[in-house]
Amino acid sequence: xxxxxxxxxxxxxxxxxxxxxxxxxxxxxxYGTPWRVIARDLPNTGSYxxxxxxxxxxxxxxxxxxxxxxxxxxxxxxxxxxxTNDNEFVIRPAETGVTPVQVRVISPNGGEFWRIGNSxxxxxxxxxxxxxxxxxxxxxxxxxxxxxxxxxxxxYYSWRVSGLPSTNCLIKASxxxx
Length: 178
Fold this sequence. Notes:
This protein is mainly beta. About 0% of the residues lie in helices and about 50% in strands. It is flat.
């Protein structure tokens, strides 16, 4: 069971004989309703953190809706592969009270070598109600930190490596709660 306002991770595996160029994710609530956009033009990272929107309509008859997720993968020639979850799941209205927020960086996870000027993806897993994730970099093993980016949705940040080189770098993701 999922609740409005929660952050849930949508996971997929997509491959192509050349390269998956982009991912689009959709959801629908109720049988036969139109698909709604969750996110478009995502990189093929295999996961996306989705905040369940507040505009979902719940009938007075039921305190829940049935939901499906659809992931579309596009290659460079615009060929499409798609999949929808096998079983519907339930979304309920938001609970009152505070949901604990937990965030964990999953990439990088140690041992990476990033060249200055290259673009890299920083990925994390987050649960609970949050407003923003701040991504910070330490070049001195965690003594000092510099903010390198912010996200208000999703679970990755693309960063062009810059600044002074170091062999003592750490990445931190911290959340601002709702």
